Every structure is written in structure tokens, then in C-alpha cells.
Amino acid sequence: MKQYFAFTRLNFILLAVAMAVVVVGMILMSGDGSTKDAFNPDIFSATRIKVAPLVCLLGYILMIVAIMFPSKRRQEIDDEPVAAPKPAKPFVKMPNKGNAIKGQIKNTKVQIGKNKRH
What we know:
Blueprint: H1 9-29, H2 46-68, H3 72-79, H4 97-107
């Protein structure tokens, strides 16, 4: 039986792109902050407050799409008819009681006196 993974190559590529988009969003949010001595107005820039969070959100949405994206191989597996399981075979085949007793009697030979040494 051939083993299939839950994700295909396309799913992994989409996940990698989504992670890269999230990293880009985090980089856009980073930058110098304000210090005790000087206020940096750049912390309230549109890039840090509006664009970067939207880029991160887009990356997370793309991750969900990458996980949920159906593959053709998975659809082919789902479309294949499932064969009915074969009936289980008994572990030990039990002989008919009558035949077993007859066989034991036939194979048992009682020899009296021949095995004694004088």
C-alpha cells in the first residue's frame, strides 16, 4: 500500500510563502523606538501602524489557505472505491471431533512385551 502525506509539495510551498509574508510584516513593524531623551515620531508612521499588521494578517490568512488547499492526489484517493475487507480466517482450524478421535486411535499402537529387555 502506497503511503501518502497529508500535504503535497504545493501545500508546503504556500506555507513557506505565507511564513515569508509574516516575517516581512514583522520587519516592517520593527525600527527604532523612543528614548527617555528624545521622542521618535516614526513609531506612529502609517507603515508601522497600518501596513505591517495588514501584511502579517495576510500572511496568517495565507497559512490557513495553504493548510486547507486540496490537492489533486488527495481527491483521487477519496474518489477511489474502497474494497470490502476480506473475511477473517480462523487462527487454528478445528478438526471434526469424530475424525480426530478415530485418527488418534489409528495412530496409537500398543505394543506389549516387545520393548522389554531381558
